């Protein structure tokens, strides 16, 4: 069935059955590949996108539930000042290794800083718990969020 | 600055000729040069007529840094800034892009990417520099000795010009036989803290392209329905329910009957159609064993006469010395099967060109593996098969299978089609956890005797487990006298001076396919050696650091000197012996892949209510640290990988079927699990050695030793969470 999505500020009409995870529409239909498939069960966070500014796992978000929402993916989050600060911090600190989870890490980090501009270490660990990184770049993720917070404060 | 007056004309001529400067090597290793791009000549460095320099990186990038490190070597020798060099991944060519430590085989593994490329890529860069300088000398009529290249600018006295001006002329020169390499005192990029990763920005903004991101026109997505237990055979299928799924195309039994390929228009349709498919399985030859049986086989082997006396020890004499010792410390260890679980599930895409060539798009860790397999499957000569290496979302060994497992699976799924549409094979996380290759299960039994003065008089060490190498094409190279060195590495070649060492090994049957897993045998040998060292030191009434140093005291032995040095550095930086109240420290040190790593883990809490990992301090000697920050990152990651798995992960079997499914029951390390990691690099003038793996081996035993120091609980069977230790 035809569905209308508002994604990264544009309106897209896609052909997808109800029950289709948003992840596969973003990746396979819209060919925006920055949003990653890692587990399919909302256990790793690689597929994190924003729904009306809130991070959600797109592998467990169904297409029929997001028709009226503003969806933002990693490809567009840098246009926002928090997204831009997080991406700048990620480069400054060379947070990434393999990088496959990092789109999701950045999207969650932006979500955290949007609601808490100066998170403590404990608050970072709590908020980012669901974003797995098999390369274990965690301490740089923590430092990256703190650095982004500084950039935003300046 | 004076710009050479002939520059404009020079550039024009170069552009008209389309000349590029390519520096590579002949199959015999000698440097070679070409002036135009052809598929016949595969270089290490390419300089376009406009001066754009590109490093051709022969190792794949899974996060460990060669896409930064190899260009650094070339930029250093030519005289460029890091923003003046780009990189591309090399095509498959085992004659030119082979790993120099693997023979005629192109591949990444064993923490060798920098170690084997160090001289080769520097020589290519140095040759390019000398040729550009020779061309400038000719053009300017000055002595080459007075010409330098810095930040991409060729200079002699008051003359200067960008390297672009000399590309065409340089490309007509012969390669120097032995270009002069820069002295370390001249290094500006190698060892420079300010050199950043070249792949950071694209990995933080979604632009990085992994194999999973390949979308070829008209491609089909295929998933394989595999048997629940290894060895099941597909006889046929019923796809009537799959046909109800929109986007389902068809299904076909793979030619080897190892599974059924389901083809669909997109990934979600493939997932659903595969779920709906009913397969007629013949499970008569399938694996039926339980994890307990695998463990029982290993434990029985530990109690029996070992198949191999690895170090040709006088076993009876060693046993007698231990029997007569003042104190005997005895422990039996068990290490379960483990999955690699790289973040990007396995996948690759295969297509046939109009000319009948086969192209594989893959995060290719060992291109030579699928390249050889595809010659057989497609009955094509090697030059008709092309491998496009994409970024890889981790590996930890999983993408380097001796039988090119998933690439062969994709080829089999492709050959049964009419080949008009590209086929993209995708594994789900469940496929990865349940159908995978695993770190083998291993057991160790160690008996150590101490005399009245606390000196070791005998160390009898039995190892039993499933050989990674036997039964693979690497057996003839890597197995000697029946002994798979990867089963006992880290013990047989330990730098420790241990009197009365007797090392025995027995191979046990494989119930699953087993594979090297980040640091291979060191995953279990370091744990055993280093927790035993603590237990023995404790029995001798000696400090763990001092006791280890006493077995690394030969001042004529470079191995012992370097191992002792990292041990001392880690202890010093961690404030060894001065843990804050309520905390305890554990230490471990291990040599692997030519590098020496020591780690101190500091913990608080208790095993019942939860251990908290407060801090890990690491010291690493990897020779020259080409990129210190990448080295630190690899230590941080290696520590996390080692600790994450021993905390709570294992793969178990029930009636031959894997019990775990996905991350919820194969729980990855999470951000809160390790509060801080602090890495210190030993300054060195030695050639670079490995960094991808050496951080992993000491991490788990250092944690175990810290928990023992805190609570008196020594964990000898893993994972810890299943053996009395909880974590917060």
Q: TL;DR of this structure?
A:
The complex is a heterodimer of chains A (154) and B (728). In chain A, 40% of the residues lie in helices and 15% in strands. Chain A contains six helices and five strands.
Task: Write the SSE topology.
The complex is a heterodimer of chains A (154) and B (728).
Chain A: E1 2-7, E2 10-15, H1 22-29, E3 48-51, E4 54-57, E5 70-72, H2 74-77, H3 81-92, H4 102-115, H5 121-127, H6 138-153
Helix pairs in contact in A: 3-4, 3-6
Chain B: E1 2-3, H1 7-17, E2 21-25, E3 31-34, E4 43-47, E5 53-57, H2 66-78, E6 85-89, H3 113-140, E7 148-150, E8 153-156, E9 159-162, H4 167-170, H5 200-204, E10 220-225, E11 233-238, E12 248-253, E13 260-264, H6 267-276, E14 278-282, H7 291-303, E15 308-309, H8 315-323, E16 327-335, E17 338-339, E18 347-352, E19 358-362, H9 368-378, E20 385-389, H10 405-415, E21 423-426, H11 429-434, E22 438-439, E23 442-450, E24 456-465, H12 475-478, E25 479-480, E26 483-484, H13 485-488, E27 501-507, H14 522-540, H15 544-550, H16 558-574, E28 583-592, E29 595-606, E30 610-621, H17 628-648, E31 653-654, E32 657-658, E33 677-681, H18 699-711
Parallel strand pairs in B: 1-9, 5-6, 10-21, 19-20, 24-27, 30-33
Antiparallel strand pairs in B: 2-3, 2-4, 4-5, 7-8, 8-9, 10-13, 11-14, 12-13, 15-27, 16-23, 17-22, 18-19, 18-21, 23-24, 25-26, 28-29, 29-30, 31-32
Protein name (chain B): Isoquinoline 1-oxidoreductase subunit beta
EC number (chain B): 1.3.99.16
GO molecular function (chain B): isoquinoline 1-oxidoreductase activity
